[in-house]
């Protein structure tokens, strides 16, 4: 048995020809279908060059167990999620490497009702099945059906249902799809909105899917990828900008000045949107930057509940508490009315509705938050020994901490500031976030002090 190195902490991804290839894709598809004793499985793919052939291989593996494939074609991860729920299938697989380098590919998998895989009971079992090729007997082969058009109609109807289009005011919106899979899906949503007389104007940037990614891998978290959106917002006099990653399960925002908005503030805006309509609701958040969100949720009569970072943990916490919304500052946003799954399309719809019902611009909405609770944003440091680097910081700051939280990494809180330090699951990185109350402390000074200890 050769260990499959493409199985990572949360999903499947790897370098082409090194960690993953067509034969491995076939084995994974067959293992998923066999593990769930599936009758039907949804398959989708992103815009990468190898994704169609990988999707074909996965489908062949599924059909060789006797299960049927419901093919949604080129789509986003969230379209796969919704199709699994909408068509009552036993699992769903999307072939995608999201924002990874061009020579990578991978998969994201869910089980029935779009639930995340359990790491031990599902993910590791599927991995071992694929490694051992311990296939069971079959008495017939499954079929493959193209449901792309039908699935997209149902998906668009669901995401647009999150807002009241009659409330929308005239807005000019820059949309950067990064030449990933988002373009066609966005066009379907925009067409639906225009049919409902939404007074919106869209400026499309890097819109068409292109497997060569001529404008760089679609990853708006990279600072070098932001000017294309920011410059378009400024030159077009737009009200906001929205940029997507490769499989558009994340979206990122720019205000009317072209400034990038940190994910921690987007969380609070979305929480505001839900609590205004659903007072007293539960809101799930990750542990990295929390004070601003907790303040807003509490002020609106809601309950902020902390969860460990990661989609499986957030989704589990949401289901357990029936939370209406959950978010991570990394731009993953989860919705009860979207099968408790994450979506990159729902957030921008909620934001334009919030702008339409507010007398403030996006920069003004965020400014008040930042002034009350400034944040450093996430800072990543490459280190030889992440555990040792974290321990060095803790030895310095732990004696003066008022509280210590180890939900995810370690968070230390003081009178007027707080930091979270955690190591990456997949890379030799230490991730640092700092937040404060007002101008009581200098965030940049704290950042430099901790940086010197880490590096």
Protein topology:
Blueprint (H helix, E strand, L loop, with lengths): L11 E4 L6 H14 L4 E6 L5 H13 L4 E7 L2 H10 L4 E5 L8 E8 L3 E2 L2 H14 L11 E3 L1 H13 L10 E6 L5 H14 L4 E6 L21 H10 L3 E5 L6 E4 L8 H15 L4 E4 L5 H9 L3 E4 L4 H11 L3 E4 L3 E4 L5 E2 L3 H12 L4 H11 L6 E4 L3 H12 L5 E3 L4 E4 L3 E7 L5 E8 L6 H12 L1
Parallel strand pairs: 2-3, 2-4, 3-7, 8-9, 8-10, 12-13, 12-14
Antiparallel strand pairs: 1-5, 4-5, 5-6, 10-11, 14-15, 15-16, 17-21, 18-19, 19-20, 20-21
The top-level CATH class of the largest domain is Alpha Beta
Sheet with most strands? 7 strands, mixed
Number of strands: 21
Shape: globular
Just name the CATH architecture of the largest domain. 3-Layer(aba) Sandwich
The structural domain count equals: 4
> In what range is the share of β-strand residues?
15-25%
List keywords for this structure.
single chain; 455 residues; alpha/beta; Alpha-D-Glucose-1,6-Bisphosphate, Chain A, domain 3; 4 domains; 5-stranded mixed beta sheet; globular
Write a structural description.
The chain is an alpha/beta fold and 455 residues long. It folds into 4 domains: 142 residues, Alpha-D-Glucose-1,6-Bisphosphate, subunit A, domain 3 (Alpha-D-Glucose-1,6-Bisphosphate, Chain A, domain 3, 3-Layer(aba) Sandwich), CATH 3.40.120.10; 90 residues, Alpha-D-Glucose-1,6-Bisphosphate, subunit A, domain 3 (Alpha-D-Glucose-1,6-Bisphosphate, Chain A, domain 3, 3-Layer(aba) Sandwich), CATH 3.40.120; 106 residues, Alpha-D-Glucose-1,6-Bisphosphate, Chain A, domain 3 (3-Layer(aba) Sandwich); 76 residues, Alpha-D-phosphohexomutase, C-terminal domain (TATA-Binding Protein), CATH 3.30.310. Helix content is 37%, strand content 22%. Strand 19 and strand 20 form a beta hairpin. Helix 8 packs parallel to helix 9. The two termini are 40 Å apart.
């Amino acid at each position: 048995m050769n260990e499959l190195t493409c199985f990572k902490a949360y999903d499947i991804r790897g370098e082409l020809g090194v960690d993953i290839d067509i034969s491995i894709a076939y084995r994974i598809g067959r293992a998923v279908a066999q593990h769930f004793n599936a009758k039907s499985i949804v398959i989708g793919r992103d815009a990468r060059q190898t994704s169609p052939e990988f999707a074909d291989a996965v489908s062949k593996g599924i059909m060789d167990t006797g299960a049927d494939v419901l093919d949604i074609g080129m789509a986003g991860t969230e379209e796969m999620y919704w199709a699994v729920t909408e068509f009552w299938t036993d699992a769903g697989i999307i072939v995608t490497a999201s924002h990874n380098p061009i020579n990578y590919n991978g998969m994201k998998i869910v089980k029935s009702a779009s639930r995340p895989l359990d790491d031990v009971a599902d993910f590791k079992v599927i991995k071992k099945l694929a490694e051992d090729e311990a296939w069971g007997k079959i008495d017939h082969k499954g079929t493959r059906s193209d449901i792309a058009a039908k699935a997209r109609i149902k998906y668009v109807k669901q995401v647009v249902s999150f807002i009241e289009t009659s409330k929308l005011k005239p807005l000019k919106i820059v949309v950067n799809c990064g030449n990933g899979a988002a373009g066609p899906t966005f066009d379907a949503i925009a067409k639906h909105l225009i049919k409902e007389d939404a007074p919106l104007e869209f400026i499309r940037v890097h819109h068409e899917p292109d497997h060569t990614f001529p404008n760089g891998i679609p990853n708006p978290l990279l600072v070098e990828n932001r000017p294309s959106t920011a410059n378009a917002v400024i030159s077009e006099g737009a009200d906001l900008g929205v940029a997507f990653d490769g499989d558009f399960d994340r979206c990122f925002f720019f205000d009317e000045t072209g400034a990038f908005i940190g994910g921690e503030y987007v969380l609070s805006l979305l929480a505001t949107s839900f609590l205004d309509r659903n007072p007293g609701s539960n809101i799930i958040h990750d542990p990295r930057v929390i004070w601003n969100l907790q303040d807003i949720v509490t002020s609106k009569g809601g309950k902020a509940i902390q969860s460990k970072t990661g989609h499986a943990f957030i989704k589990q916490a949401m289901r357990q508490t029936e939370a209406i919304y959950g978010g991570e500052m990394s731009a993953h946003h989860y919705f009860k009315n979207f099968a408790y799954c994450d979506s990159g399309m729902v957030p921008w719809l909620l934001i334009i509705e919030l702008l339409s019902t507010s007398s403030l611009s996006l920069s003004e909405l965020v400014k008040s938050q930042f002034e009350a609770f400034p944040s450093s944003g996430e800072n990543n440091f490459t280190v030889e020994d992440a555990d040792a680097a974290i321990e060095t910081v803790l030895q310095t700051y732990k004696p003066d901490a008022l509280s210590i939280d180890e939900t995810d990494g370690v968070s230390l809180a003081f009178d007027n500031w707080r930091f979270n330090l955690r190591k990456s699951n997949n890379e030799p990185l230490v991730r640092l976030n700092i937040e404060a109350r007002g101008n009581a402390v200098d965030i940049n000074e704290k950042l430099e002090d901790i940086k010197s200890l880490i590096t």
